[in-house]
Write a structure and sequence with these properties.
single chain, elongated
Length: 192
């Protein structure tokens, strides 16, 4: 048991009992408990397997390689339109978690097997287009372009999705200018 997870649960305003019930199930598996990204995270041989995510409407157990799970019961939910690997189970009560305990353990066992065999998610390349506003700033500021190019592919993709989701050119321009200092420091969109 990780003391930071214990503190997290005690401070939780939502889903405290549900997190505890889910934690109890996960601790009975081969997973190691840690606290990453301000959430209870579970790993096998230092490879992240699952993370508990409290949302307003539900409590989720997200599997980092959820797309590899067989999911015979068709209960896994996509983590979002831009996620290719992660999938999650969602819960709204302790009773629901307890009722699904055997299924949760089976999914965890399968996810651990992926780590033991080194199985990886095969990502489909989905290039994100560069907004015209970004191209113009790159032309004016070569150091900014270099800093952007030096970011990890995931960080670049995060920025491109954020910039590209704005409908108006002025909003795209404002977002780029706002993110410019973080990019120059090599930080991702959500890095502090």
């Amino acid at each position: 048991m990780n003391s930071k997870v214990t503190q997290f649960i005690k401070k939780s305003k939502l889903w405290e009992e549900e997190i505890e019930a889910l934690r109890e199930i996960l601790l009975k598996t081969k997973l190691e408990e840690d606290f990453k990204w301000q959430k209870p995270c579970y790993a096998y041989n230092e490879q992240n397997v699952a993370i508990i995510q409290p949302f307003k409407s539900c409590l989720a157990l997200m599997f980092f390689k959820g797309s590899l799970l067989k999911d015979a019961r068709k209960i896994l939910i996509d983590n979002g339109p831009n996620s290719q690997a992660a999938k999650r189970l969602e819960f709204t009560s302790v009773q629901e978690i307890k009722k699904m305990a055997a299924t949760i353990k089976a999914y965890v066992k399968e996810a651990i097997a992926f780590e033991e065999t080194g199985r990886k998610v095969e990502f489909k390349k989905r290039p994100q287009p560069l907004p015209e506003e970004l191209k113009k700033i790159f032309a004016k500021k070569p150091l900014f372009k270099k800093a952007f190019d030096d970011l990890t592919p995931g960080r670049q993709r995060g920025y491109l999705l954020y910039f590209g989701s704005a409908k108006q050119a002025s909003t795209r321009q404002a977002r780029i200018e706002k993110c410019l200092p973080a990019i120059l420091k090599g930080k991702g969109l959500n890095d502090r």
